[in-house]
Amino acid sequence: MSTADPSDSSGEPSGAQGPAPTPPDAPPVAVVGLGGSAGSLDAFERFFVGLPLGSELAFVVVSHLDPHQESLMPEILQRCTVLPVLLIQDDMALKADHIYVTPPGFSVGVQGGRLRLEALERAQGHIIDAFFSSLARDRGEQAVGVILSGMGQDGTAGLQAIKAAGGQVLVQDPQSAEFSSMPEAAIKTGLADVVLPAEDIAPRLYELVTHTALLAPGDLEAEGQTELQKILLLVRSRTGQDFTGYKVSTLVRRIDRRMKSQRIPALGRYLRFLIETPGEVEALAQDLTINVTRFFRDPDAFARLKEHLRSTLMIREPDQVAVRVWVAGCSTGEEAYSVAIVLHELMEELGRPLSVQVFATDIDPQAIATARLGLYPHSIAQIVSAQRLGRYFKPSEEGYQIQGFIRESVVFAQHNTFSDPPFTRLDLLCCRNLLIYLKTELQRHILAVFHYALKPGGLLFLGTSETLGPEREHFSTLDSHWRIYRRGQEAARPLPSGQIVARGESSLLRRTALPFQPDLRPQQRTLSQQAQRVLLTQYAPPAVVINLQGEILFVSGQTGRYLELPSGTPSPNNVLEMVQDNLRYDLAAAINTLKREPRELKVRSHLTGPSGSVLLEITLRPLHGPEQGLLLLIFHEQPASDAPRQDAPSEPYDMVQALRQELHHTRETLQATVEEAFISVEELKSTNEEYQTTIEELKSTNEELMTSKEELQSLNEELITTNSEHQRIISELGQANDDMNNLLESAGIATLFLGNDFKIKRFTPRFANVIRLLPGDIGRPIGDFHLKLRYPHFQRDVAQVLSTLLPFETQVQTDDGHWFLMRITPYRTASNFIDGVVVAFTNLDSVKVLEEQASISARYAQALLERMPDAVMVFNGQKQLLAANPAFYRLLRTTPARSQGHSIDQLGLDQLALKEVQNALNQLLADGQPIRELLLDVDMPGLGRQPFKLEAWPAGAAEDGSGSGSGENVYLLLLENLSTIAARLGTDSGR
């Protein structure tokens, strides 16, 4: 941002080149509708506090108000802005730089640039929607809708109408809103052009409508920052108020507001304008001191404060009747009176006499003057309840006057919270909405001062947008929403460095000339200074300025004849050490007299020098001005010849007179010395008492330290024991870890641990047969690696186990032909939390070899069985047919499908049902006794009766399908046709 040279000596004000001021009846360039509920008064205030002047906009405030009560909105908003605030009347014309407030009991519309009042029923409870819709129809692209804090969704439909007409929509950030329903509903529409806190909406609106960029902290380059510091120094030198600790954004916004009101575009030109216009400095300082307050601001907050004050007062000792309160940044006094009223109500409710003392301070003298009057407008009746209004206020023609007993309990003073000494031993400290304007460093500084000022257990009451930050460890939270805290019981910390300053600092600042103030007439000032210097040198008597301690602050003329440095180590610039001995006591007595009674005194004495004896007269004259306690010492000497001549006979009389005068001075000096000694004794007594108190505190502290030492020793022993236990546990954990590693290694199982995110947590070395992993791969997803498996569903199975928590196992084969049994189980922690899966691969190569061999043997046995000519069958313990060879099925003339599963008693062989056969079979089933060569005659269809031999024996356990051999016991039965065997044998012998 370009700035003008402050040294520019142009006689015209910088604002002369700016645009002409807006005519008083000019139409607005745009109309801004502000919608919010009755609880959004704070948001309205913040909006208008941040509004730059000269925007040429018209503002219409529409809020949900009680239709049966008078509106307090115009009076409250008028305190936040210099723009006129008007209550809307029917057919009122919209004008630029005016604020219009909707009256209770009406809805409002716009037609032809004029405001129309309508019946409240026509809006059907949505007065903001009704106005926004009317504004969109009448103004089109010149319509602006702003939604602030509020309950419900009123205004959302109206914003849609404004956006459809080409207007602009701005919404308060819900996080900064006391009631967030309306802002959140507006944001959900997706129509908001800007979402900002209430105090930042107005500057952004100004930029959007006027297309003029405002001054911003980021725009300040090195030169601009220097000019900003010069402006703050100028304000401090003229008013005594230091704003360097304020946030840069706050300062820039206020300065930019004043620049726009004066039509000055550049910061350098505004600095020049401030130097040449002292009244503008006062106006800027008034803008920088933000006075926004009202009675019982946030009633719920004061209700909660009253509850905590009641509980605090109830636990106090009966003899503790004094209640000290400090309201910092009290503005025009409403908050201080509100606190005093709450305390008087508690005094009546508890029936305890209390001495209430409320210290209310602010840096703005005008605000303090208003607070001292205690007179407020009739409109406060809308905020203060009727009961409190009748009890604590007196009605008058000008408004409501605070009652005398409340006024007497509040002391108002101009006070700088940042640098002046704080009030101490406080039961309650209120500082609401002051810290939000300050830098973080200054906030910490002030909170440290507040901790020092509060007594242990005292309450701290902040604004809803303020927090304790790093100081929270020294306070306990009583109500986090309304920011009510209690100070801890620890001893008060010392005040922060730089807190207490001399009371005369502000006055000294006011008299300090600015180094950059221009010299408008350098030649005239040079001539006058030269002339004054010559006159002072030639004709003015020598003089010095001292303080009441005798320290020389200023020297004029040749004083070397009367003042000289003593031998040894002199006191720095002390006049009592530099005068002659015969003047020292008289001069000290005169200074002590002037301490008690400021008046002009003279001290006379003879002064001996190289030219003879002269009479020296020293005039002591107090300096009247802002700085108190300064004396002017004027040295004037007379030659001895000018003194009254005396005859020789009178010389003894002169000696007696001189002795008497010296005795009188000695007595005065002695009296002053005695008084000083008495004061010193009193001070020493006080100091001794403080030392005694300090010694007692140190003894108590020493005892506490000894107790703490013993506790620390006990704690140290416990720590040593705990450390030993931890060492033992670590050793056991190491041993268990080694055991687990050896167990996994000796088991020969490749194990992989995966997390819930499929990332590798741990693996055993044998897992390299499946995936080649390195220790650095821990933490990487398993999907990044190629599994050497002929199985594509590994990750799917892992996900299934994580979702179902059921183990899963299957046989898989690697690319190089090895077989593994893959088992996936959930990984459960000691607290039964699922933290991934465990994947175990067991080598099955030997099992597969055995299975192959068993399969070959089974095939051989099956082939041999099928080739046997005799009938062979297999049955179980229930005598059910499980299997048979083809000879058996030919013998029975049946098929496997028709016979398997049936009892051997039902197969059609009557001889098998004989009693001796059944007994033999039952004996076989009972104790496994084989049947040997049981001969039978079987009637074979078509062949007649044939001799058979039956044999049966146990064959072991049947396979259960898994190859484990864990099925039921089975038995083998052989039927040999003896005739067939004989025939076969005969055939073989014939051959």
TrEMBL record:
Molecular function terms, GO-annotated: phosphorelay response regulator activity; protein-glutamate methylesterase activity; S-adenosylmethionine-dependent methyltransferase activity
Residues forming the CheR-type methyltransferase domain are 225-488
Q: Which domain of life is it from?
A: Bacteria
Q: Can you tell me which residues form the catalytic site?
A: 37, 64, 154
Give the matching PROSITE patterns: CHEB, CHER
Q: Which UniProt keywords apply?
A: Chemotaxis, Coiled coil, Hydrolase
Q: Where is the composition biased (Polar residues)?
A: 1-12
Gene Ontology cellular-component terms for this entry are: cytoplasm
Which residue numbers delimit the CheB-type methylesterase domain? 28-212
Protein name from the UniProt record:
Chemotaxis protein
Coiled coil region boundaries: 656-725
Instruction: Name the Gene Ontology biological process terms.
Output: chemotaxis
Region of interest (Disordered), ranges: 1-30
